[in-house]
Amino acid sequence: MDGNGRWASDRGKPRVFGHQQGAKTLTHIIRSCPKYGITHLTVYAFSPENWQRGALEVNALMRLFQIYLRAYMGELDRENVQIRIIGERSKLPTVLQRMIEKIETKTKNHTRLVVQVALNYGGRDELLHAAETLIARHQNTKTPALPLTQEDLVSALWNPSCPDPDLLIRTGGEMRLSNFMLWQLAYTEFVFLPQYWPDFTADDLGQAIAQFKGRQRRFGRIPTEQNAPESNP
Ligand code: IPE
Ligand code: MG
Asked: Which of 87, 99, 196, 225 has the fewest Cβ atoms surrounding its Cβ within 10 A?
């Protein structure tokens, strides 16, 4: 969800105004997911590097996360939407951590849509954390450390039950990953869009999905009828 700050600056407003608008955009996008057949949505909300922004912006973002989690808990629950937070949550404000626990518990059995919010999330941190988890598991259970399988590593990611993304969309014009889901994106299709996140609409999402459907996904294999465009999920 990139481009909130630039969206606000273009309007002569403080960056925080862009984040407020970006949060509204997210509510529209979440509501539009089921009609596109999306069952899992992960949004990148805050990276470990984002702490280096000024205290004013960081505090405003932390407040915004709390306001939105509190305001939408009821609707998400009623709409059968599961909320998961991925990232190093111990560094988040305690009241936000409590709220995360509450909404995760309340929505944990919901199945219509899983929304993962990446909060203080770094792809490298996730892999380091997974390595630590595997070592600790080995030490605690005396199970053999080697050989290590891909499934073992996946089991130690922040949310092992989330399938790898089919499609990554980055708004705001930059064409890089910025430390997002480094393991999970191995075979993901990428769509980079120039518009800033507050301007991103459900129609834009539909167009990105249409682009995705035109891609031939081969997963390293040679073309077959199965992986031809249009047979994409
Ligand atoms: C993305 O918008 C939202 C967060 C990182 C919280 P930015 O804040 O990165 O906006 P730009 O890239 O400065 O325009
Ligand atoms: Mg940015």
From this structure: 225
